[in-house]
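Researcher: Good morning. I'm working through a list of sequences from a screen, and I'd like to move beyond sequence-only analysis. For each chain I'm collecting a predicted structure so we can compare shapes side by side. This is the next one on the list. No need for commentary yet; just the structure.
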Amino acid sequence: MQEARSHASSERVVDEIDRARAQEYALLAILLSRSPDAQMIERLALLRGDASPLGVAHAVLAEAASQADETTAAREYFDLFTGLGQGQLLPYASHYLTGSLYGRPLARVREAFRHLGIESAAGHSEPEDHVAILCEIMAGLVGGDIPGPAGIDREFFEKHLAPWVRRFFVDLEQAKSADFYACVGSLGLTFVDIEMEAFALSA
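Model: Good morning. Structure tokens for this chain:
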């Protein structure tokens, strides 16, 4: 997915932890922007877990991927996020924070994009406060592809994701039509809890 891009480049040194964080955000961005194709499902089935909460979430997602296929995953995604006119979930900050789309949270995200030198890619009409786009931006900030001052990833997360994204992942985890995507919800919930705790400890 390439929903947004920055004109600038970054030479910031990215450590192993931040590379791993960026990969998690990128994975969530991909899975929340579209249903996985057969190759993606095969790769997900190879994920390795461990005894940590995030490792367990990886193992559960891998097991779900081993039981899924492109058709069933696409139907799940359609039912959850698209549907006939509207899916079960509206993965936008504006919806979760104001109850309607195109609200002030979207305006704040667009202002943050301007400050960061990010512009929406041509041909994409999705509102920028979509969870997949915000995860993609976090992947870029954490991984150094989008330059910014020290702590910009924390600032962006706390302003644009922390107030609502945990509720979204709980809703996804518990959605009636979710099977594979319930595991995506569990992974997202586990990961953002880790992010919140890490940011709190570094405050």
